[in-house]
TrEMBL record, chain A:
Record organism: Phormidesmis priestleyi ULC007
Signal peptide per UniProt: none
The protein's annotated pathway: Energy metabolism; oxidative phosphorylation
Uppermost EC category: translocase
Protein name in the entry: Cytochrome c oxidase subunit 1
Key words, A-Z: Cell membrane, Copper, Electron transport, Heme, Iron, Membrane, Metal-binding, Respiratory chain, Translocase, Transmembrane, Transmembrane helix, Transport
Molecular-function annotations in GO: cytochrome-c oxidase activity; heme binding; metal ion binding
Region (Disordered): 550-588
Free-text function comment from the UniProt entry: Cytochrome c oxidase is the component of the respiratory chain that catalyzes the reduction of oxygen to water. Subunits 1-3 form the functional core of the enzyme complex. CO I is the catalytic subunit of the enzyme. Electrons originating in cytochrome c are transferred via the copper A center of subunit 2 and heme A of subunit 1 to the bimetallic center formed by heme A3 and copper B.
Membrane topology recorded in Swiss-Prot or TrEMBL: Multi-pass membrane protein
UniProt-annotated location(s): Cell membrane; Membrane
UniProt main location, coarse: membrane
Domain of life per record: Bacteria
Transmembrane segments: 37-60, 80-102, 123-144, 164-189, 201-229, 249-271, 291-310, 322-345, 357-378, 390-416, 428-447, 467-497
From TrEMBL, chain B:
Family note: Belongs to the cytochrome c oxidase subunit 3 family.
Keywords noted in UniProt: Cell membrane, Membrane, Transmembrane, Transmembrane helix
Superkingdom of this protein's organism: Bacteria
Domain named Heme-copper oxidase subunit III family profile: residues: 35-208
CDD domains attached to this UniProt entry: Heme_Cu_Oxidase_III_like
Identification of the protein by name: Oxidase aa(3) subunit 3
Ranges that cross the membrane: 34-55, 107-127, 147-168, 189-207
One biological process term in Gene Ontology: aerobic electron transport chain
Pfam families the record matches: COX3
Record's bilayer topology term: Multi-pass membrane protein
One MF term in the entry's GO annotations: cytochrome-c oxidase activity
């Protein structure tokens, strides 16, 4: 038996009869219900917001290059980091990972023609651009400046219009996220091709399932908090205002009930993508399929009961702190299972060290650092020491940038050929990786030390003794900003002039590679066939009972080609194993 | 293939389409909309759960609840309202039974009664609002009272509009029949949901 990829491809040979749909570029600006168009709409829109958030981050770092507040005023500085965080979380990582790659890949991976609710899908996308523009417009009336957490009573005290705009855009983006989650859950449960049980799904589908459940359960509670906060802000109720008998801690509980799971909403899809990429580019079966799949579900369940570890210094009673400390630390177990499984997959593999795998390995290394500092801050005494310092800033950026964004980049390099039919330039990809890896570590590694030494976050000025390390961080941030340019140029140039990609440039086994690049409108010419499991790389040398030839001149019905009888109801007379054959064939 | 992680007995190569349950003719794939509605209602339930939990916390943290000086809530009108809303859930179920027997007239009758009961509930609530002795910003209890009942009231209003929409559509001949009546089921499921939430709300605000 030959290689599994060949087997899977032969069983699903896409028809190249007509030139693949060149595509009208205008469809990307309209209300398309094609999940692939919507996926690309998500990715392009969110990437634009990523650039906006990046500009804001660069301004924050410019201000912090010196200890005095000399670049912008304190108020503007507050707005800068507030909007930076909101954009990066709600308009880039969440919608890019779930809406973007989820939409594009889930139906293809499970062999469906589209999502379960295509119109709902388009609505969920079209909520995002207005919400993003709304958030940006807040700069015209005085942007919100109380951090992305918007803790009352601080958030009730200054800049009402900006704060209201922030609440409205978060409500809109939350709605979009819930609608997308409903769609994913129904699609994954109901639209898989026959023969693909849950345990035959690619791991990205498992990750998206867990993510969607989290978004479905956690996001509404944030919406509830936003509704109450807007009443406090606009009508003068006192839900969260202690001067009127309210309780600001209730807001913190409601907010973190969403916003901690939001971390997993941002990282779980990336976990799924890394599982795909590591296996394909190491040419090895994924190590511990079920362990990775079920650990996603475990993270989903545990992720809902750890939120108060953000509130160890908010007067949380000690017994409750103990509970949340233990649950938070337990999360490291399913996460560790994933990390070790990826390492075991790479171990001894036939590595193809191109951009997707480079970014995936970059992801693993940086995410592990963020994960370990996460276990540190989960312990109450340590957290009390570093709460609201740059240690937290370092930790969260190692998880969200070193983790999520590096993973998203890996996914861009991996699936770009499928989405556009063109390859990305490899040299520029490597330059992009090197610049961002160095820039990232330069920008965020020193922040650990700054935080431990006591530099507070969210303040425009700092003690001059922190000046040299902060300058280093700023230089790293500039390098990180510059590192985006090679990627942008690469994508824009390759999309138009890049080398044509074959249907399956990475020799993958999952079903998205079993159609043309880019896929036709309803994804597959005929219903796809599972001839191998999603990660059966290099299993060809194992003993097999059945050997199906790919072409057989004397008896085409016996081969696994496109006209194979294996695709239809098997005729007992041409069963692949001679001992199974019954009766006389009608095809001979 | 022992070299594969697939269970070969379950793959398409060994799949017999004719063994699948045949769904209604002309339907391209199974109708997942009702499942979608139910999944969406999980999210809706979580908003209410979040607000209930906030209410519970306010209540348990406050030294006295409701805060001193809050007038006692009248129980008679809300009690009647509750009875009306709860019984409307049984009424709307009759419509579902009717349409499954292809009885569009029955559907219109029972949906009409449900809509009337919903409207009575809403007017009763508005009447209560105008006759209460506290306003939205009087104190924390008053605020939670108005926001919780108001948010629920909006849901009742939306459910009422769904019911009226179904009634409007049922005027078209054969729009709903035994095999195709997703709109009826969706409105019914939503109405049951709104009803259950009200029961919890009533217990929380008026009884406890």
């Amino acid at each position: 038996m030959t290689q599994a990829a060949e087997f899977q491809e032969q069983a699903n040979l896409p028809a190249h009869g007509t030139e693949p749909d060149k595509g009208d570029w205008r469809k990307y600006f309209g209300f398309s219900t094609d999940h692939k168009v919507i996926g690309i709409q998500y990715l392009v829109t969110t990437f634009i917001f990523y650039l906006v958030g990046g500009v804001l981050a660069t301004m924050v770092r410019t201000e912090l290059a010196t200890p005095e507040s000399d670049f912008v005023s304190r108020e503007v500085y507050n707005s800068l980091f507030t909007v930076h965080a909101t954009v990066m979380i709600f308009l880039w990582i969440v919608p890019a990972g779930t809406g973007g790659f989820g939409n594009y890949l889930i139906p293809l991976m499970i062999g469906a023609r589209d999502m379960a609710f295509p119109r709902l899908n388009a609505i969920a996308f079209w909520i995002i651009p207005p919400a993003g523009i709304l958030l940006m417009s807040s700069f015209l009336v005085g942007a919100p400046g109380s951090g992305w957490t918007s803790y009352p009573p601080l958030s009730l005290m200054n800049g009402k219009p900006g704060e209201l705009i922030w609440i409205l855009s978060v409500l809109l983006l939350g709605t979009s996220s819930i609608l997308a989650a409903v769609n994913f859950i129904v699609t994954i449960f109901k639209m898989r091709i026959p023969g693909m049980g849950l345990n035959q799904m690619p791991l990205f589908c498992w990750a998206m399932l867990a993510t969607s459940f989290l978004a479905l359960i956690a996001t509404p509670v944030l919406a509830g908090a936003m509704i109450l906060l807007s009443f406090d802000l606009m009508v003068g109720t006192n839900f969260f205002n202690p001067t009127g008998g309210g309780d600001p801690i209730v807001y913190q509980h409601m907010f973190w009930f969403y916003s901690h799971p939001a971390v997993y909403i941002m990282i779980l899809p990336v976990f799924g993508m890394i599982s795909e990429i590591v296996s394909v580019h190491s040419r090895k079966p994924i190590f511990g399929y079920k362990a990775i799949a079920y650990s996603s579900i475990a993270i989903c369940g545990l992720g809902l009961i750890v939120w108060a570890h953000h509130m160890f210094t908010s007067g949380t009673p000690p017994w409750l702190r103990m509970f949340f400390m233990i649950t938070s630390m337990i999360i490291a177990v399913p996460t560790g299972i994933k990390v070790f499984s990826w390492l075991a997959t790479i171990w001894g593999g036939k590595l193809r060290l191109e951009s997707p795998l480079l970014f995936a390995m970059g992801f693993i290394s940086l995410f592990v650092i963020g994960g370990i500092s996460g276990v540190m801050v989960a312990s109450v005494p340590w957290d009390i020491h570093v709460h609201d310092t740059y240690f937290i800033v370092a930790h969260l950026h190692y998880v969200l940038f070193g983790g999520s964004v590096f993973g998203l980049y890996a996914a861009f390099y991996h699936w770009f050929p499928k989405m556009t039919g063109r390859m990305l330039n490899e040299t520029w990809g490597k330059i992009h990786f090197a610049l961002s890896y160095v820039g990232f570590n330069l920008a965020f590694m020193p922040m650990h030390k700054l935080g431990i030494e006591g530099m507070n976050r969210r303040i425009a000025e700092y003690d001059p003794k922190f000046a040299s390390l902060n300058l280093l961080c700023t230089i790293g941030a500039y390098l990180l900003a510059i590192s985006t340019l090679p990627f942008l140029v690469n994508v824009c140039w390759s999309w138009v002039y890049g080398e044509k990609a074959s249907d399956n440039p990475w020799r993958g086994l999952t079903l998205e590679w079993m159609t043309t690049s880019p896929p036709p409108v309803e994804n597959f010419e005929a219903d796809p066939v599972l001839a191998t499991g999603p990660y059966d790389y290099g299993m060809g040398s194992r003993a097999t009972e059945v050997d199906v030839p790919f072409s057989d001149a004397s008896d085409p019905a016996l081969s696994a080609g496109p006209s194979s009888t294996l695709r239809a109801k098997p005729d007992p007379a041409v069963a692949v194993s001679p001992s199974d054959r019954v009766g006389e064939s009608h095809n001979r | 293939m022992t070299g594969s992680t697939l269970d070969s007995a379950k793959t398409v190569l060994n799949h017999h389409p004719e063994e699948d349950v045949v769904v209604a003719h002309g339907v391209e794939h199974h109708d997942f909309r009702l499942l979608g509605i139910i999944v969406f209602l999980v999210a809706e339930g979580m908003i209410f759960l979040g607000l209930f939990m906030a209410y519970f916390t306010f209540r348990s943290v406050a030294p006295t609840w409701p805060p001193e000086g809050t007038p006692r809530l009248e129980l008679l009108l809300p009690g009647i309202n509750t009875a009306i809303l709860v019984s409307s859930s049984f009424v709307i179920h009759n419509a579902d039974t009717a349409i499954k027997k292809n009885d569009v007239k029955g559907l219109r009758l029972w949906f009409g009664i449900t809509a009337a009961m919903g409207a009575i509930f809403l007017s009763g609530q508005l009447y209560e609002y105008f006759h209460l002795e506290f306003g939205l910003t009087t104190n924390l209890f008053a605020s939670t009272f108005y926001v919780l009942t108001g948010f629920h009231g909006l849901h009742v209003l939306f459910g009422l509009m769904l019911i009226l929409g179904v009634l409007w559509r049922s005027l078209k001949p054969d729009h709903y029949n035994t095999n195709s009546h997703f709109g009826v089921e969706a409105a019914e499921v939503y109405w049951h949901f709104v009803d259950v939430i009200w029961v919890i709300l009533f217990l929380l605000l008026y009884i406890l």
